[in-house]
Amino acid sequence: MLDLAAIRAARDRIAGRVHFTPVMSATRLGDRAGVGLVLKCENLQKTGSFKVRGALTKISTLDADARARGVVTVSAGNHAQAVAWAARAAGIHAVVVMPEAASAAKVDASRGYGAEVVLHGASSIQAFDRAHALERERGLVFIHPFDDEVVCSGAGTAGLELMEQVPDLDAVVVPIGGGGLISGIAVAVKEMSPRTRVYGVEPTGAPSMRLSLDAGHAVRLASVNTIADGLAAPMAGEVNYQIVRRYVDDVVLIDDDTIAGGVRELLVSAKLLAEAGGAAATAAVLAGAIPLAKGSRVATIVSGGNIDLSKLATLLR
Predict the structure, then answer these.
(1) Which domain covers residue 25, as residue numbers?
(2) Which of 53, 74, 155, 184 has its Cα between 20 and 30 A from that of 10?
(3) Measuring CA to CA, which residue among 49, 186, 24, 41 is closest to residue 113?
(4) Does the active-site annotation cover 183?
(5) Residue 9 CB neighbours (<10 A)
(6) Where are the beta strands (DSSP E) in the chain?
(7) Is the pLDDT of residue 20 over 90?
(8) Which residues pair with 25 in a beta bridge?
(9) pTM over the 0.85 mark
(10) Domain ends where: 98, 126, 142?
(11) Per annotation, catalytic residue among 51, 58, 190, 311
């Protein structure tokens, strides 16, 4: 299973190629929640989200044969952009499969980074199937957006940074899509500070990890329905489920209205632009969905900031 040594090795692989993102004190928001709140600003990361950490780590491990074949992935947008960027930097052809309703801004950005974009299906469920078909048909190397220990090790470098920046945290709150980010961060946080609690946050319309924990095994959803496209993975990864079961204290669900409120509060009170998925962890703290003692030192991961202006306008209303 993923460990702290692997995350430290990932940091060495990508050192100097991604941003060491800032931690920002959010006093106004923290006061409302009764905690000392800081924000780990992965929305300020290259390509606009934490995803580049895992994509770059994974691509850096590919051998010459895999690089010659090219890579394929599936994503609602942030992982697509990250793979496109990392592949271009490595001189590798990348194909990214995105749902037909994917954010236009994320589609354009993925193409701008040099990827071949394939739009397929009404949701990420159909997009996953198409990506695996292209993997077989064209001999491409599939880069899973979350169910991969190497990808998780890259995501975990955000947790290493956070614990170095704020070593005395009582709790860290992380959004969950398929589970790649929380897997890496939970390992880093718990192995560096076992007393620090780690909480995951999912939308009620895409509760794959919560249902997996309840069922005792990783589950696949029949459908997803949430404004947080970055958290709309149709399944919990098997690797991710095992790590979350071992390291994460709890996973809570919040609805889309609460998530939208988080987007607004981050913009108005913290002057940070976050997409819906990127705001979910902070939204959960503000809504009282996380069991935090008064005065706790808490960090939330603002995991991404790639949002269409039209969607932002809707959320702000």
Answers:
(1) 4-49+148-316
(2) 74
(3) 49
(4) no
(5) 14
(6) 23-25, 36-41, 71-74, 94-98, 116-119, 141-142, 171-175, 197-203, 250-254, 297-302
(7) yes
(8) 38
(9) yes
(10) 142
(11) 51
pLDDT value, residue 151 = 98
303 is annotated as an active-site residue? yes
Q: Quick one: pLDDT at residue 280?
A: 98
Q: How many angstroms separate the CA atoms of 122 and 61, rounded?
A: 32
Catalytic residue among 153, 208, 303, 311: 303
DSSP labels, 159-217: HHHHHHHSTT-SEEEEE-SSSHHHHHHHHHHHHH-TTSEEEEEEETT--HHHHHHHHTS
* Structure tokens that stand for 94 in this block: 């990348």
Answer yes or no: do 20 and 59 share one domain: no
Considering the domain architecture, whether residues 37 and 152 belong to the same structural domain is answered as: yes
Which tens digit of pLDDT belongs to each residue from 174-195?
A: 999 999 999 999 999 999 999 9
Q: Do residues 121 and 99 lie in contact, with contact meaning Cβ atoms separated by under 8 Å?
A: yes
Is residue 199 within 8 Å of 170, Cβ to Cβ? no
pLDDT in tens, 46-55: 999 999 999 9
**Do 119 and 154 fall into the same domain?**
no
Are both 88 and 32 inside the same structural domain? no
pLDDT of residue 120: 94
